[in-house]
Specification:
Elements lengths: L10 H19 L11 H10 L15 E4 L2 E3 L2 E3 L2 E4 L5 E3 L4 E9 L3 E8 L2 E6 L4 E4 L5 E5 L4 E4 L3 E2 L4 E4 L10 E8 L2 E3 L1 H17 L2
Antiparallel strand pairs: 1-4, 2-3, 4-14, 5-13, 6-7, 6-12, 7-8, 8-14, 9-10, 10-11, 14-15
Length: 207
């Protein structure tokens, strides 16, 4: 949950801090061009976020600063995710409880992690660390300085620290590229964050 990002506070103070974090991030998101609303994926995005419970979902970046590139078309082509700037080394939180299905390294995403949560797949790119195999051939992600190790097939809880913001792959600054798929189709992460905020705001303001 969003308030899990704020430690050492009372429950009400945690909610206020988490609410402020997500509201500030949504205001930043609102500054982008709305051309992505015309995309074919928009209908699937709305359907995917309209009938789900987001009470257990976690905002994915600690020390969030701003959105630097939205989901949709840009000068270099289609951008299948949302770029979220944060200081290098900031921890990345698992969006929703799920299973690590793949960790990899390439020239574009850099070091990447993919996690399946039911029909959802969430993807984290440009993270610090590397990918290796053990003696039996099992693949894992390792960030020794950050104290993180993830194995393919491992179940990770919502809000768990799974990586740190880095600059691996094709990037001009430290950020998390966060991608979402629903039933194999790309979904706009900005719509998901808005749905999360609306539900969690209603839930915690009743307390």
């Amino acid at each position: 949950m969003i308030n899990q990002l704020i430690s050492g506070l009372t429950p009400k103070a945690q909610f206020r801090s988490g609410k402020a974090l997500l509201m500030a991030s949504l205001m930043s998101l609102g500054g982008f061009s709305l051309g992505w609303q015309k995309l074919v994926e928009a209908r699937e995005s709305i359907q995917a976020t309209s009938a789900l419970s987001w009470s257990e979902a976690s905002f994915p970046v600690e020390n969030f600063q701003e959105y630097t590139s939205p989901f949709g078309y840009r000068s270099s082509g289609f951008h299948y995710g949302l770029d979220m700037a944060a200081p290098q080394g900031s921890y990345i939180r698992n969006w929703w409880t799920g299973t690590v299905v793949e960790v990899w390294e390439d020239g574009r995403c850099g070091t990447g992690i993919a996690i399946d949560s039911g029909q959802w797949t969430h993807i984290y790119c440009h993270v610090q660390g590397s990918v290796a195999k053990d003696a039996s051939g099992r693949t894992y992600f390792i960030d020794r300085q950050g104290g993180i190790q993830l194995w393919e097939g491992q179940v990770v809880a919502s809000g768990a620290r799974i990586a740190r913001v880095g600059m691996t792959g094709r990037t001009t600054g430290p950020h998390l590229h966060w991608g979402l798929k629903y039933s194999g189709r790309w979904v706009d992460p900005g719509r998901v964050l808005m749905a999360m905020y609306n539900e969690q705001n209603q839930r915690y303001s009743r307390r």
